[in-house]
Amino acid sequence: MTINRRTLMQGAAGIAAGAALGSPFGAGRAFAAGSMPQFKPEEGASLRLLRWVPFVSGEEAAFNANTKAFTEATGVEVRIDQESWEDVRPKAAVAANVGSGPDMVMSWFDDPFQYPDKLVDVTDLGNALGEANGGWYDGLKGYATQGDKFIAIPLCAIGNAICYRDSHMKAAGFSEFPKDTDGFLELCKAMKDKGTPAGFPHGKAVGDGNNYAHWLLWSHGGMTVDENGKPAINSPETKAAVEYAKKLYATFIPGTESWLDINNNRAFLAGQISLTANGVSLYYAAKKDPAMAEIAEDIRTTNLPIGPVGKSVELHQTSTINIFKHTKYPEAAKAWIAFMFQPEKFNAWLEGASAYCCQPLKAFADNPVWSSNPVHKAYANASASLRPNGYAGPLGPASAGVMADYVLVDMFAEAVTGQRSTEDAIANAERRIKRYYR
């Protein structure tokens, strides 16, 4: 593991500042804001965190450096276990339901609503962090709260944007990237004809598959449920979205129906596709490899095209930090989260992530990472613009169940591959949605 010296120095400076305030971490929790609640780690505490595998090495280095600084300041060891994106959800659910395993998890979307009674109430911490840092973005806060109660702490949105080869787009006859779905389809057709096709995951990809499927539906005005939580998937708008998806799929490289979150990255970097939707990690994976210098120089990013609905509607990956009730050290867990959110620590993490992670708190929106590279621009407003996956209904156990069951992803996959007709794929999705929304 490579630890950035500058990040470590920032962490050390933060500890020194906390000590100067007369509240050293060894005795409790140090915060510059006097209104912050105090979390004193339990005697002999140690913690275990389950997190998703990082796609940006700088994010991991900054995260680990901040955690190391916490251990040095408190004596509380924090073990970090990494799992693939697809494996975090089932492993966290097992830990919650059997009452053992990691003390904390970095979860996806509305997963906390699958087991809210198994999570530590962190309302005191959530409110304090919001008050001290300009407030939470509503979309991210919604993934962590039930009414006025925080059942988790929002961590970040991982922006999803179109990544494409500029020279290949121009070779296909387009001087600029289309802003609407009709033009986007024409671009994908032209790029296929040039042998530089697009590719979007239709497999059970937690991030890219869900982001793509929800954009397809929402851009055409469809929704899984209405404002009252009544299933609304069976609609003309959904049919239009599915028919559009079938036309796009015809321009893709073969095999996208089995793609997980890593596959479109690999295909793009291998030169098999020239257009997909991904986090900024795709750009940095190319940039760090001298053999891919030509690809890195050619990459451009932009937000997903606007469909018949007439406005930008994007999901974006979201992650929260949950503390399980089975932990023996809830105060230590809160202290670790509070430490990681100290401004100098959190800003160092955002910088290390190089625009991969978008801040959940408004005070961090002016981090220089967003203006440091034109490639970052498409990801800068992910936290402010995201639409929760439960749209148009409320988030809760039902929306979490539909997401975890990949209902929307499967609907499009069944239709584009011909496994079911458009009508049958929609009817099957409606049947599955009704199992959760009763």
UniProtKB/TrEMBL annotation:
Keyword check for Cell membrane: no
Domain of life, per lineage: Bacteria
A Pfam family matched in the record: SBP_bac_8
InterPro entries, per the entry: Bact_solute-bd_prot1, SBP, TAT_signal
Keywords: Periplasm, Signal, Transport
Signal peptide, first to last residue: 1-32
Subcellular location: Periplasm
Keyword Nucleus: no
Entry similarity comment: Belongs to the bacterial solute-binding protein 1 family.
Record-given protein name: Carbohydrate ABC transporter substrate-binding protein
